[in-house]
Design a protein that fits this description.
- Helix content is about 0%, strand content about 70%.
- By secondary structure, it is mostly beta strands.
- The strands form 3 sheets. The protein has a 5-stranded antiparallel beta sheet, with no helix packed on it. A two-stranded antiparallel sheet has the order 3-4.
- The termini are far apart.
Length: about 100
């Protein structure tokens, strides 16, 4: 198994911020699969790239919008060949401080 994670967040103004996160996870680096009678290494890794924008009212609330672009080759096309799964997603997160 192998994984890594990198992230950065930058305040743009007292009311706004931007950020970016990248992570990768390889659950089984010595995984093989049989395709057309051949044993081939299977790439089971998942890579996620996530830009983020946010706004806040200092001392009261924060609102973040994040998009996750996920490269996940565990899906299969109609011929049985690996292809990227359609699992990108948007996340809207609200946080209240009190």
């Amino acid at each position: 198994e192998l994984s890594w994670y990198v992230a950065a967040v930058q305040d743009v103004t007292p009311y706004a911020l931007v950020g970016f996160r990248a992570d990768s996870y390889q659950p089984n680096s010595d995984l093989f699969e049989a395709r057309r009678g051949l044993f081939l290494p299977q790439d089971a890794s998942v890579l996620t790239l996530s830009p983020l924008i946010g706004g806040r009212i200092p001392g009261l609330a924060k609102l973040y919008l994040q998009y996750d672009y996920v490269v996940d080759l565990l899906g299969r096309d109609e011929r049985g060949e690996p292809e990227d799964l359609a699992n990108d997603q948007w996340t809207l997160r609200a946080q209240v401080e009190f």
